[in-house]
Structure formats: structure tokens, C-alpha cells
Amino acid sequence: MKKALITGLTGQDGAYLAKFLLEKGYKVYGTYRRLSTPNFWRLQYLGIFDDINLISADLVDSGSVAEAISISEPDEIYHLAAQSFVGASFEQPIATGMVTGLGVTRILEAIRQINSRIKFYQASTSELYGNRNQSPQNESIPFHPCSPYAIAKLYGYWMTRTYREGYGIFACNGILFNHESPLRGLEFVTRKISNAVAKISLGLQKELVLGNLEAKRDWGYAPEYVKSMWLMLQQKEPDDYVIATNESHSVQEFVEKAFGILGLDWHEYVKVDQRFLRPLDINVLQGDYSKAKRCLSWEPEVKFDKLVEVMVKEDADRWQRWQKGQRFPWDAPNYPTETNILTRVPKV
Q1: To 5 degrees, how large is the angle CA 92–CA 96–CA 100?
Q2: 27 — phi, psi (to 5°)?
Q3: Nearest in space to 244 (alpha carbons), one of 172, 198, 300
Q4: What's the rounded Cα separation, in Å, for the pair 309 and 303?
């Protein structure tokens, strides 16, 4: 039986990947940070919590990282843990570098010292490309990161390649473009939209406040993207791959589609607030997954319209069940309102 260690197990990708690997017959270990309030709702929502072997670890603590690897003795490590919210990286740039950047090196160095035969997957990101004005973006397009998050990820990307080329470790970068699902965190714009639309339709919320409606992203479906992670580590040789849908849609398009699914006119409910603008934002991201299709036989099935529909209907269903008194693992009821959260207002 193969064994896999997933960092960032409690996040969207970690939960879906754990489910995927369990179905493949893996013994799955996952690291998590000890918090005053446990964050296992995604694993519980997918019905896999009892099937996971949990290990407490923190990416800023090299000892706990090494111990997690020693305990699990994995064949494969999927490194998904990070401070992964772009907006928060501007508020906490140093912490983002410590966790999202240096955390990669701590794991790779532990692999080198403990067992260099372990295969390693690094969760890279389309944010690496920044505003290159070259679209679509593939593996050969130069990077130009535009946020502390992307800069930290760039460090991790090159460190992954350095350990691959310098030490012969089977290490891959998955350059994944935006991928969403009903398990996405509420701090991300897609889930913020789908959750708000559901609440507005039920009279539980009056308006939706957003930032940049013109930003365009390549949005895919997270359960499909985690399969690509696994495929990368099953190849004969390690390499880096772009995972995307080859389509780009604006935040406004997402809003229009989401409200339309429940028969609402978005103009009546959406407001723009400068507080939700980033100091530096990316205008357009659109990937080219040709290499993944050719080498991994991977391609997306769920595209933009279906993705929005899945997210909105799932959030609407959950709020309806909640109103009926049903209780189940879920994040939305406990999420604080953003109206009293103070952030730096970017200069315009």
C-alpha cells in the first residue's frame, strides 16, 4: 500500500486530494496546525475524517516537519499548505514569506536528509505570471509576481527545481490556475459570491460588497485539479505543468452568472468598495494546459458555467437545510461579517 503525506490537509485541495488518494487505495497522512478551534469541517463534509492519519506540524518549525515525514514514511508528499490568500499577503508579507516560501525548503531539506526517494509535489500558482501581457500562459512564459504571496510562491517554485536538478529528488511544480468548489474558503471571491447569492435569495443578506470586478481569471473545478497532482508524481521523470481550463472570465461575469442562476438581477445587490481592492492586482490570467494534456492525459471537464452553477446551488442548498434546523460540518454560519474588518485602503 502506498503512503502519502499531505500538508494543508484541512484546506479545499487537501480535502479533495485526500479523498482521491483514499479511493486509489493509499494510506493517507495529513499535517495540520493546532488551533483553538479545530478546522476539520471539509474532511467531515466529505465523510473521510476517520480515514485520515493526522499529524500536528507547522511549516515554520523544521523539527515538526521532519517528524511528520519520519512518522508517516511516505512514498509521496503533496505540499499544499501555505498562507494562500493573496489579499492577506499584503497585510502579512513577512509571515507569508516564512510560511509560503521557506516552508517549501524545510520540507525539501527534510526529504534530502531523511529519504531522497520520496516524490514531492509543490503547489505553485498562476499568480507567478503577474501582469506579463502574454496570454495564454504556459510553462515557458516568464514570471512576474505581483504580490507577497506570488513572490513567496516563486521562491518555492525555484527551490523545488533546485532540489530536483541539484539533488536528483523527484520534485514537480503544479502551476495551477484558480480552481474553486463548494469547499472553497469564504475569503476567496468565488465562494464569497456564491454564498452571498444564496443568502440574498433567502432574505438572509441584503447586499454583496466586492472589489475589482474587471479582473479576469481562469477558473476550474478543484476535484479535477487534484487528480493532476497525483498524475505528475506517477510519471517516469519529474517536470512542471500548467493546469487550467484555457478560458478566462471576469469577476463580473461570475457575479452575473451566479445571481442569474437563482433568478436575481445582480445590479440590485452588488456594490464596489475600495477596501477590497489590492495594492497591486493582476488584470488577466488564462492558462494553456496543452503540456498536461499531452504528457499526463489530463484535461478539465467542468468549465466556467457549470462551476458557478455547482457552487451557487450547493450554498443555496446548505442555507436551506440550515434554516430547517439541520446541522452539518460547514463554515458559513460562523464566518464573521467583513464590515468591521479594517484593512489598508490602496491608493487610486
Answers
A1: 165
A2: -90, 120
A3: 300
A4: 10
**pTM beyond 0.85:** yes
Distance CA 181, CA 310 (A): 8
243/12 Cα distance (integer angstroms): 16
Length of the chain counted residue by residue: 348
Q: Active-site positions?
A: 125, 127, 149
Q: What is the CATH number of domain 186-218+248-285+303-334?
A: 3.90.25.10
pLDDT in tens, 297-328: 999 999 999 999 999 999 999 999 999 999 99
CATH code for residues 3-179+219-243: 3.40.50.720
Closest CA to 176 of 131, 214, 230: 230
Q: CA separation (Å) from 95 to 120, 147, 217, 291?
A: 23, 13, 26, 34
Backbone angles phi, psi at 41, to 5 degrees: -60, -35
pLDDT tens digits, 121-134: 999 999 999 987 78
Say which residue the cell 492525459 belongs to. 297
Domain ranges for the chain: 3-179+219-243, 186-218+248-285+303-334
